[in-house]
Write a structure and sequence with these properties.
The chain is α+β, with helices and mostly antiparallel strands. The protein has 6 helices and 4 strands. It binds flavin mononucleotide (FMN). The site of flavin mononucleotide has 12 residues, from strand 3.
Length: 180
Amino acid sequence: MNQVLKTIQERSSIRSYKDIPLTQEELDLLKNAVLAAPTARNLQGLRYYFITDRSILKQIDQRVMHHAGDEMRARMKERGSESFFYDAPLGVIITAGEQRWPGEDAGIAVGILSIAAQSMGLGSVILGIPGMAFQEDDPENCGKLLGFAEGEKFRIAIAIGHPATEKEPHEKNFDLIKEF
Ligand SMILES: Cc1cc2nc3c(=O)[nH]c(=O)nc-3n(C[C@H](O)[C@H](O)[C@H](O)COP(=O)(O)O)c2cc1C
């Protein structure tokens, strides 16, 4: 198996991180990787918010918690974290306006980031929940905090850092593949 295929197989969601900041070199490698992601018609409509400032991640957490129901609060308690970014030293939020295929573009970009992180010996977890902090019908949503432009929407996020835990990759189900 080549190294890229091995990295894909080894990735799993990490929900506990060491309190070690990423180096500038690591941040630059991740930025370089995500900017290599393809976008439909090369429109490059995605925006990538690289957030290492814990106080900003905390404000996003607080807004998610404002909307969270009992079930979500219980799940977070079970996972042993009060942060939807699991106290990772880096949270990346990916946004897009209403261009063609914004969700697809964002999904590809976040997938590339997760594999790039894995290849660098870092862990990651892809995050949809922080989107609750950016609900358009919430006048106190966090769009202003990050300076979103008109029409810019949260699409997906990812937490990245040095893993403080190990998790086996999920079990594969080959029945999901149909061959003709
Ligand atoms: C679109 C998407 C959104 C996700 N959102 C969250 C999230 O908000 N919080 C979380 O802890 N995990 C989240 N995950 C991680 C999944 O729970 C995880 O990928 C899945 O359980 C499979 O485990 P694995 O990543 O270890 O293979 C998300 C994954 C995807 C692909």
